[in-house]
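Q: Please design a sequence for this.
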């Protein structure tokens, strides 16, 4: 009887973990842009955490990091390296107004820094969500 209860508990815990909402860490220096991205992502069902651009980026439960590479008073390359140290293996979407629209996907700087996807500002809600889904899948 105990084995059945333990098995049922383990199965329920596994299902809960499998159904966990993907966690996204958002590192964006512009307050209005950060609010907009948070709104888009939470409306799509993702759990979003924010951190100040120069803050320590150690955040548990992160499945994806979105970082603006060119923020005022912050070094995007330094932030990318800190993300890689604190969240090894976690995919990163690099965003920036400094990328040119047609060249964003091939930006050697962002790729060398470890970005899995690159979005040039301005980008659409659909572009952002397509990049997120490609890296962490749809929300459960």
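A: Design:
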């Amino acid at each position: 009887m105990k084995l059945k209860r333990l098995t049922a508990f383990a199965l329920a815990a596994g299902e809960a973990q499998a159904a966990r909402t993907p966690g996204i860490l958002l590192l964006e220096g512009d307050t209005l842009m950060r609010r907009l991205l948070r709104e888009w992502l939470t409306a799509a069902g993702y759990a979003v955490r924010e951190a100040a651009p120069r803050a320590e980026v150690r955040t548990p439960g992160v499945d994806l990091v979105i970082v603006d590479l060119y923020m005022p008073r912050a070094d995007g390359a330094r932030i990318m390296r800190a993300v890689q140290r604190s969240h090894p293996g976690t995919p990163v979407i690099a965003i920036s107004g400094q990328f040119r629209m047609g060249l964003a996907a091939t930006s050697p700087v962002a790729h060398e820094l470890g970005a899995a996807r690159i979005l040039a500002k301005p980008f659409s809600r659909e572009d952002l969500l397509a990049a997120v889904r490609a890296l962490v899948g749809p929300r459960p």
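Q: Thanks. Anything notable?
A: The two ends are 32 Å apart (CA to CA). The first strand starts at residue 23 and ends at 27.
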